[in-house]
Design the sequence.
């Protein structure tokens, strides 16, 4: 018999089947202030509306620093601080539609900046603080960002590329800006100059509020634009997938540099007035468990690699803690192995609810719900209001259990508005008439549950971070010893995949362990700390098509000992 884990108790969503029949997106409208005449703006709905009711003194954010200090903010305080910041930005010359980058560690200023930017109609561009200078430069140039909010040490990391950041007018520095140059101004001063009663600007549903850079199989990372109307789906899923309730303390472990960390690390839960936990430090099993216990986390949204690392830390460690408050656990970002779900049952005595979505989808789409049986290894079923299917290249649905492309009927509220300055890339998602093609391969079973099989393209997922082989290859060939490089994702038990690079060297260079290390270091500082190849293999030549394109498919098949497939286009 098929393995299923029955529901413990129904949550906010009582009956999935009934919701499928009855639910309409317009029914969510009444949950927002704008339906009663307020300004249409995600920042207003996330913060200001709560500051005008009894939640004014409710804790909105516990921001835990890397050294375990805690800073607390109420909705009232955040409303004032973000209003000041929005107004201070305007005084610096920022206008609606400006791209404003936030390059910060996970500190409270990051949250204040993100909400402040959206309040004045700016498009916030959160950048993961592990990005190297070249990666930041690419994003800043692509989007013509006008302002940066950053910290002294991250500003210094940008020094090699500062002269290239021609569109940036001001760097707003959290901390001391002494000696950092005339383009910098202190965050504190911007806050100080601003109006605490600033009102959020009225936006159109299709105005973007955020730009998230994400990788594809070709070219450099692209800017995915999400619109203010995303709030409709983010509200709905925060309520019915994350199952958030008034009394909850919620921890999303994702960094706001990625979409999980904004859609569900900032906006979705705050639309519901939820108390958030944010932790600046790095992963550490004991610290993570302590946070869940000591803050009484009730709802926890995390990722498979983190869960696998916790599994590795051992069952005994778990027994040192009391998780009695923890009610609901969700996961996203990579395939959640059935084994991890079983571990959750055995050791945490909790069901782990997998959720599937993408940067481009803006919010969760295929999920497991408290009221529904979980099939370990399955991503679950589409949220009410969304049609998902597995189709062939003509858009025809394939029968149950047959592999195909994971596809969605376009038009869900949080669907990306576009790709910044790249309409042709945007159109590619809709190349099969009537469908949005996600880039994943999947199948659907007889009960309508979706199962992930792999990417349909070369995109790599390492520890849940999305990477394009092309960007890694481009960084590699800038290293003086590297002639050519081909990059693949190699399956890895802990990280899902690791980056593996096949490299041919320039004539005067010899393979060595030292060189491998040097090349890894080079990629780390150029792209991001997580983007370096954990495995490097020096080869004499790379398989290429007659037109000179590296055949990553062949590299991967060879690595995995699989059949090489059609080699008719191979050079020799
Ligand atoms: C890709 C999107 C939006 C959340 C963070 C990731 C993979 C995501 C799952 C899952 C298997 C998953 C897919 C997807 N992915 N969730 N539950 N099971 N794979 O967003 O960085 O834009 O990546 O992550 O391949 O297409 P992202």
Sequence:
């Amino acid at each position: 018999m098929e393995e299923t884990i029955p529901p413990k108790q129904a949550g906010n969503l009582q009956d999935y089947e009934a919701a499928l029949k009855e639910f309409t997106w317009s029914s969510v409208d009444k949950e927002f202030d704008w339906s009663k005449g307020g300004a249409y703006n995600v920042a207003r709905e996330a913060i200001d509306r709560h500051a005008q009711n009894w939640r004014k003194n409710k804790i909105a954010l516990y921001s835990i620093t890397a050294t375990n200090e805690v800073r607390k903010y109420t909705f009232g305080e955040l409303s004032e601080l973000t209003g000041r910041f929005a107004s201070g930005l305007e005084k610096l010359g920022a206008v609606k539609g400006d791209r404003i980058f936030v390059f910060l560690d996970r500190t409270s200023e990051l949250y204040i900046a993100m909400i402040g930017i959206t309040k004045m109609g700016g498009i916030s561009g959160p950048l993961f603080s592990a990005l190297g200078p070249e990666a930041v430069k690419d994003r800043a140039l692509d989007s013509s960002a006008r302002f940066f909010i950053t910290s002294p040490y991250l500003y210094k990391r940008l020094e090699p590329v500062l002269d290239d950041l021609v569109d940036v007018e001001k760097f707003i520095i959290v901390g001391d800006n002494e000696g950092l140059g005339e383009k910098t101004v202190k965050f504190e001063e911007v806050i100080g100059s601003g109006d605490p009663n600033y009102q959020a600007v009225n936006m159109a549903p299709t105005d973007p509020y955020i730009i998230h850079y994400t990788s594809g199989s070709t070219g450099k990372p692209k800017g995915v634009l999400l619109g203010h109307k995303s709030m409709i789906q983010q509200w709905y899923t925060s309520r019915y997938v994350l199952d958030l309730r008034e009394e909850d303390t919620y921890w999303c472990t994702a960094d706001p540099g990625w979409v999980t960390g904004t859609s569900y690390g900032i906006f979705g839960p705050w639309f519901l007035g939820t108390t958030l936990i944010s932790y600046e430090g790095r992963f550490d099993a004991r610290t993570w468990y302590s946070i869940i216990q000591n803050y009484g986390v009730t709802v926890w949204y995390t990722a498979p690699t983190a869960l696998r690392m916790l599994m590795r830390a051992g069952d005994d460690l778990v027994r040192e803690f009391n998780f009695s408050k923890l009610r609901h656990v969700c996961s996203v970002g990579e395939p959640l192995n059935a084994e991890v779900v079983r571990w959750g049952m055995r050791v945490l005595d909790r069901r782990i609810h997998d959720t599937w979505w993408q940067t481009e989808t803006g919010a969760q789409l295929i999920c497991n719900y408290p009221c529904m049986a979980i099939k370990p290894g399955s991503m679950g079923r589409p949220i009410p209001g969304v049609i998902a299917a597995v189709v062939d290249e003509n858009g025809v649905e394939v029968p149950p259990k047959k592999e195909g492309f994971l596809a969605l009927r376009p038009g869900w509220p949080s669907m990306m508005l576009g790709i910044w300055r790249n309409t042709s890339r945007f159109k590619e998602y809709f190349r099969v008439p009537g469908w949005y093609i996600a880039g994943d391969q999947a199948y659907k079973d007889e009960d309508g549950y979706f199962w992930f099989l792999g990417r349909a393209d070369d995109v790599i997922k390492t520890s849940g971070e999305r990477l394009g082989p092309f960007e890694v290859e481009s960084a590699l060939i800038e290293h003086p010893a590297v002639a050519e490089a081909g990059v693949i994702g190699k399956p890895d038990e802990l990280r899902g995949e690791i980056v593996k690079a096949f490299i041919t060297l320039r004539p005067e260079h010899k393979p060595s362990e030292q060189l491998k290390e040097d090349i890894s270091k080079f990629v780390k500082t150029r792209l991001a700390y997580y983007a370096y190849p954990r495995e490097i293999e020096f080869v004499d030549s790379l398989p290429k098509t007659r037109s000179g394109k590296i055949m990553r498919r062949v590299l991967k098949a060879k690595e995995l000992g699989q059949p090489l497939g059609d080699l008719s286009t191979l050079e020799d």
Residues 391 and 398 are 5 Å apart (CA to CA). The pocket of WT7 is lined by residues 214, 259-260, 332-336, 354-359, 379, 438-440, 452, 455, 461, 466 (CB under 6 Å). The first helix runs from residue 16 to 22. The chain is about 30% helix and 20% strand.
